[in-house]
Amino acid sequence: MSEGSAFEPGREPAASAAPSPVAAARAVPRHVAIVMDGNGRWANRRGLPRLAGHRAGAQALERVVRCAAELGIEVLTVYGFSTENWRRPATEVRGIMHILVEFLRLKTRDLVREGVRLRYVGDVSALPAAARAELERSVRATAQGRRLTLVLALNYGGRWEIVDAARRLAARAARGELRPEEIDEALFGRELATGEFPPPDLIVRPGGELRLSNFLLWGAAYSEIVATDTLWPDFDGDTLRWAVAEFGRRERRFGGLPGR
Ligand code: IPE
Ligand code: IPE
Ligand code: MG
């Protein structure tokens, strides 16, 4: 699954051609994950339909991807649609899927130009055929991108991801290919949908809520979390730089003692 992957979790990033001075000082997280929340409230406050908020959210994503690449972030994972978001009215779900298809159709060329490699995590088998087709096309078209990996979390849930990995490992065990005692955190982590990426160093939640909403549950074990009242459609490069600066002020201990 992780064959040919650009990342080896737990290893320092390979010295890239021209690391930015900030990245060299390790003030920049390798992997930033964002819960793109607040689109509906942004629209409500303007007397607009919720879908106008989702459309503005897609524009915010474009700005933030550009800034993330400039900052030297390696992986940007964005939560676009959760396994629970199907509870919304069918018209809103259809609208979100349509915006996704439009985004991929219109922006793939820009992603290629900017050196962005697109990937996705989530059970995309439940997405409309057009969305699946555009996703696969964009993943293929951007495969050579080396500046930033943009991971779209679509029909994604942290619990889904864990159960999905457990089910596949159980199937291998049932076929006699794996002994249960061989399953450890490293093996389990590699089996996850996000297993080819390093765990998120920083999780950013715009929209003011202080919860994970089923995002990256396994990977979030030692993520730094930054929340802001800024609604996702208002999020821009400055907001991302602020969140990264906030990350730089945290002391990550991973269960150890300070300053060691
Ligand atoms: C996030 O914005 C986008 C999705 C969940 C698809 P919301 O639509 O949740 O916006 P609020 O939280 O209602 O403002
Ligand atoms: C989380 O936002 C999911 C995405 C942004 C895709 P929600 O709006 O669905 O989260 P809750 O319902 O407020 O927890
Ligand atoms: Mg919300």
Provide structural commentary.
This protein folds into two domains: 21-81 and 90-156 and 199-248, Decaprenyl diphosphate synthase-like (Undecaprenyl pyrophosphate synthetase, 3-Layer(aba) Sandwich), CATH 3.40.1180.10; 159-192, no CATH class. The protein contains eight helices and six strands, in the order αβααβαβαβααββα. The protein has helices spanning 21-24, 39-45, 50-71, 90-113, 129-141, 158-174, 185-191, 237-248, and strands spanning 31-35, 75-82, 116-121, 148-156, 202-205, 224-227. It has a six-stranded parallel β-sheet with strand order 3-4-2-1-5-6, sandwiched between helices. The radius of gyration is 18 Å and the shape is globular. Residues 1-6 and 8-25 have low confidence and may be disordered. It binds 3-methylbut-3-enyl trihydrogen diphosphate (2 copies) and magnesium ion. Magnesium ion binds next to loops.
Which ligands accompany this protein?
3-methylbut-3-enyl trihydrogen diphosphate, magnesium ion
- Count of separate structural domains: 2
Structural class: alpha/beta
Poorly predicted runs? 1-6, 8-25
The CATH H-level homologous superfamily of the largest domain: Decaprenyl diphosphate synthase-like
Topology summary:
Layout: H1 21-24, E1 31-35, H2 39-45, H3 50-71, E2 75-82, H4 90-113, E3 116-121, H5 129-141, E4 148-156, H6 158-174, H7 185-191, E5 202-205, E6 224-227, H8 237-248
Parallel strand pairs: 1-2, 1-5, 2-4, 3-4, 5-6
Helix pairs in contact: 2-3, 3-4, 4-5
Magnesium ion is lined by residues 37, 207.
